[in-house]
Amino acid sequence: MFLIVGYVIILASALGTYAVHGSLAALWVPLEYIAIVGLTIGGFVAGNDIKIIKSTIGALPSIFKGSKFNKMLYVDLLSMLYEVLAKVRKEGLMSVENDVENPHESPIFGKYPAISQNHHVMEFITDYLRMMVGGNLNALEIENLMDVEIETHHHEVMVPGHVMAKMADAVPAFGIIVAVMGVVNVMGSVGEPPPVLGKMIGGALVGTFLGILISYGFVAPIATLLEQKAEEGSKIYQVIKVVLLSSMSGYAPQVAVEFGRKVLYSSDRPTFGELEQELKARKGK
């Protein structure tokens, strides 16, 4: 939503101020629009393999949606982890084996659809709970493995943002290419009257204008939003890591989820009282 609002402000600022002392019709050079868009798409296709192209296109719809990683989601996550760890502390690690092996049939995970429907998050949780149940790895080994997996995930989800940022850097150059093509056309028409040449030169310069406007006004904001989405989507794995490692180190479930709560950004972090009240309210449900 804010992306559209930003686009409206950008267009109003650029075109509105120009319209005060010029004619907007002078900016309408359809072939230059087509050339710049074509060059941009061509550069995108040529510079990335099919896997990157698919992931980038697939990530684009997320920029129009609000963040799903909010305080309520993290309260659900911490409550679910607390319930799992409380069961482990009371009945032993083997008591969660069925939950881990069949998460979609688990009565615990089923209470938290916002978490259980996220395939990657559930896979991360169940994989490390499975290692804990197996008992073959110590906390340090699991922590190192978690760090590698989180880093890999972070790198993967950051790719669309990096790709769009590179596209934003390239578009001004494409605008210059289009402008130079226009200048070449002008040089071939030097015998025309000054009004005609002036119009042709103005049309050529529109390419430079479009390249810069599209780059910094339209493509760069998309790159920034994709990077922000990737950053906020990685925080949940850090929370899970801290909670599970705290439990492996011998801390009580209440203390382990408190460690996880402290990892959260202040805007998404429930207070100690809010989390405690939520855990008490959900206990026994």
UniProtKB/TrEMBL annotation:
Q: Topology in the membrane? A: Multi-pass membrane protein
Q: Which domain of life is it from?
A: Bacteria
Q: Does the keyword DNA repair apply?
A: no
Give the Motility protein A N-terminal domain ranges.
Answer: 4-92
- GO CC entries: plasma membrane
Q: Tell me one Pfam family matched here.
A: MotA_N
Q: List UniProt keywords, sorted A-Z.
A: Cell inner membrane, Cell membrane, Cell projection, Chemotaxis, Cilium, Flagellar rotation, Flagellum, Hydrogen ion transport, Ion transport, Membrane, Transmembrane, Transmembrane helix, Transport
The entry assigns this protein to a family as follows: Belongs to the MotA family.
Q: What is this protein called?
A: Flagellar motor stator protein MotA
Native organism:
Candidatus Propionivibrio dominans
